[in-house]
Write a structure and sequence with these properties.
Number of helices: 9
CATH class of the largest domain: Mainly Alpha
Structural class: mainly alpha
Number of domains: 2
Strand content: under 5%
Distance between the termini: 64 Å
Length: 197
């Protein structure tokens, strides 16, 4: 009887291997043959899942942001913490996760920079993929204002500021060896405490 293949598991294995290859070889010098060899599968098999390196990148962004949003949405609506604390916890966890996955993050950002040099910009996909997180922040902020936990504020602007602070931290994790995560976490916490009623 033929072995049953878990296609999602295989797709994720290809992704993880591709990120390691991108980190080691650089995006430009990586190819599907090398990724297939390191996965222990044939090149035609890889084409059953991804047509090129760019599609692997899109899948990586989609997978990471999808899991992130599901995790934080579930947390946001299942805790008894006040609303500022919920937002703070989500932000600090995003930063911690970025720090724990520094290599993969560096690879993803490196791909973005290389593609930008080639005239392709991934800004749109990043904005689309982080939109749900921004919406979650806005919902929590509005609830906080309504409940009296958060001072009256421009919810859209605060949510945008949070996303910019998180993006900045992620880029710094990816590229700066001297980056101090502790200070960045303090900045987010202080920023959010300013809005606490």
């Amino acid at each position: 009887m033929p072995k049953k293949i878990d296609h999602e598991e295989r797709k994720e294995k290809i992704l993880q291997t591709a990120l390691k290859v991108f980190a080691r070889e650089g995006y430009r010098d990586s190819n599907l043959s090398l990724i297939a060899t390191e996965c222990g599968i044939s090149r035609p098999t890889i084409y059953q899942y991804f047509k090129d390196k760019e599609e692997i990148y899109y899948y990586a962004v989609k997978l990471v942001t999808g899991r992130m949003f599901n995790k934080y949405a579930a947390y946001a609506w299942s805790t008894d913490q006040d609303l500022v604390s919920r937002i703070t916890t989500i932000c600090l966890d995003i930063m911690q996760t970025a720090s724990e996955h520094e290599g993969e993050l560096t690879s993803l950002v490196d791909v973005m920079l290389q593609m930008k040099k080639e005239g392709r910009d991934f800004n749109e996909i990043i904005l689309r993929r982080t939109a749900k997180l921004t919406i979650l922040f806005k919902r929590l902020l509005r609830l906080g204002v309504k409940a009296g936990d958060i001072v009256d504020c421009d919810v859209n602007r605060v949510a945008d500021h949070l996303l910019m602070l998180l993006e900045s931290s992620c880029f710094q994790v990816a590229f700066l060896d001297t980056f101090d995560m502790r200070l960045s976490k303090q900045l987010i916490s202080t920023y959010l405490d300013f809005y606490r009623a």
